[in-house]
Specification:
The protein has 400 residues and is an alpha/beta fold. The protein folds into two domains: 3-274, NADP-dependent oxidoreductase domain (TIM Barrel, Alpha-Beta Barrel), CATH 3.20.20.100; 311-396, no CATH class. 42% of the residues lie in helices and 14% in strands. The strands form three sheets. Strands 3-6-7-8-9-10-11-12 form an eight-stranded parallel beta barrel, surrounded by six helices. α2 links the parallel β6 (49-51) and β7.
Amino acid sequence: MLYRKMPKNGDELSILGFGCMRLPMAEGKIDEERAIAQIRGAIDDGINYVDTAWPYHGGESEPLLGKALKDGYRERVKIATKLPSWLINSREDMDRYLNAQLEKLGTDHIDYYLVHALEGASWDKLEALGIREFLDQAKKDGRIVNAGFSFHGLAEDFRRIVDAYPWVFCQIQYNFLDQQFQAGTEGLKYAASKDIGVVIMEPLRGGNLGLLTPPPAVADLWNEAKTKRSPVEWALRWVWNHPEVTVVLSGMNEEAHIVENLAIAGEAHAGSLTVEELDLVDRVARKYQELMQVGCTGCAYCLPCPMGVKIPKCFDFFNKMHMFGNADEAKFMYIAFLSGMTSHDEPGFASQCVACGECLEKCPQHIAIPEILERVAAEMEGPNFQEQVEATRQHFKSGL
């Protein structure tokens, strides 16, 4: 296992972190025996950073991790978990959720505590409610050690959130397809320039970049490489090639995947890919982008929409469904992030479009936005959409 230092505190963290959002399941619940064995085995093999959150597995991820870290394992790892920002409506809520998480995890402190799923509007709300004072107090009384945030917004909001508090670390979505999405490469470098450690989520785009059988045109490109690697290894090595990255999270739930990821994490030094290999990865990225249904870059020039449609996010989830064929996951994410349940925003579904055309004048890519939103609504929503929204809402509102 290779390790990298968290810049502000000097912690030596395994470059591979264990993500507890996709634990193994049995009969609709976490397979506790198997999940605990996986987590402990990964720690025995050198992983010392484990990431969870309040809503993962309907609220059962944190208690499971607490069980896994008994018998001396707690002392061997850094725990990361997250304040559920969308459930916070007062300063008191912040303490109530943190205290509940400490109890669920069976610990008296959280090593790396994140404000979960921030974007511009949610940060502004939390700032008004006293998030700075909460973090300061929780650090002072020892309930948390290091404060950070995870991010799902626009690049310009990332910069101002980075600058708004003395964060130790942040967590961003980053992979070779998302170099200009959300925080992107620019955000990665900006955070690093401030000595903020960067933890990466979705290095495989929910596992899709690591499929053993990628789209045929992509497979043909990988086969051109002089050094043969699996799609998983290419994707992970590309992220680790960036010296600004501290930890890469992987939601591992198959023993074979854990073994493979651990092996890669023992060799993936920063700067180890050749110019030719980086060029190949860029060509693969371009091929994936060709397979996309919408050439949206996520610039958000089309916003605000007078009807509240979250146009870039609608297109992002639509593209993911068509590139990777995982309709269930794409539709779940579409509902979760466009319904407002994670951010307290108003809903922004594609079906809210009335084809006013205001966005057409703003789009630098000249995308036929209303026409494509009609396709998105037809494919992502469908006749049972309201029932699906309510089921997802129940998943997310498992508050105190």
